[in-house]
Amino acid sequence: MLGDFINRCLLLFFGYAYPAFECFKSAEKNKINMEEVIFWCQYWIIVALITVFERFGDFFLSWLPFYGEAKLGFFIWLWYPKTKGTCFMYNNFLKPYVAKHETEIDRKLQEVRARVWDFTIYYWQNCAKLGQSTIFQVLEQLATQSVRFGNATATKQTQKKTGSSVPVAPPPPESPSARRSGSGRWTPRAASRLNRESGAADSPRFQRQLTGEMMDGDNDELQQAKMRLRRSTPIS
Fold first, then answer.
1. Basic residues composition bias: which ranges (predicted)?
2. Is the separation of the CB atoms in 77 and 89 below 8 Å?
3. Rounded-to-integer distance, Cα 98 and Cα 91, Å
4. Cys-Cys link to 43, which of 86, 97, 139, 199 (CB 3.0-4.6 A)?
5. b/e per residue, 54-70, with b = 16+ CB within 10 A?
6. Nearest-CA neighbor of 42 among 83, 7, 94, 108?
7. End-to-end CA distance of the chain, in Å?
């Protein structure tokens, strides 16, 4: 484990950091040496291809003994001044192959670019629609919750003002039978109260009914007085 970590650190330094610094010095010289610039361009082209293929190749080749050490040695061999393996790899393998299939490679790259662009637009539109619908749902839920909260607050304030949590129902209207006096006869006070409450004092039917009941009540009292008088009179 420690050896693999050390190997990765050495690969980052000798394969990327040191060549990048040398390339920087070549590009920033007062008198630019085109051979050095071309050499480092070729080196970075090869390193880029190796980095692409090693993402898949490491899965199948990393189990080999001394695989990391071999990779480190290959990177050093590419830029080392006495070996300059970059020129050998570029001129003998990479350049002939790319020059032969350059048109086909360009066509494949354009197709891949168009597919990636269409794929990106398609999923961007779907994500935008999904996000829009989600935002509308959230806003609708917030509006509903705010309305409920406002109604509950208004109800609580009303209950605090009235001093009762249960609304009081109005008293039921009093029936005509409850307005009678204890003797079962309509009294003038009850009649006038009934007239004021019902607003039907001018109705002829009501006047006839009220007069008939009062006359019946007077006849009852007259009959009772006659009976008392007969009982009190002695028989001669």
1. 227-236
2. no
3. 11
4. 86
5. eeeeeeeeeeeeeebee
6. 94
7. 149
DSSP letters, the chain, are: -HHHHHHHHHHHIIIIIHHHHHHHHHHTSSS--HHHHHHHHHHHHHHHHHHHHHHHHHHHHTTSTTHHHHHHHHHHHHH-TTT-HHHHHIIIIIHHHHHHSHHHHHHHHHHHHHHHHHHHHHHHHHHHHHHHHHHHHHHHHHHHHHHHHHHHHHHHHHHHHHT-SSPPPPPPPPPGGGGS-TTSS--HHHHHHHHHHHS-TT-HHHHHHHHHHHHHHHHHHHHHHHHHHHHHSPP-
Cβ atoms of residues 87 and 80 within 8 Å: no
Tokens 């920033």 locate to 28
Instruction: Kindly report the length of the chain.
Output: 236
Q: Which two tokens stand for residue 108?
A: 């494949």
- Residue where the block lists tokens 């409850």: 178
Sequence-separated (6 or more) residues with CB below 8 Å from residue 26 = 32, 33, 36, 37, 40
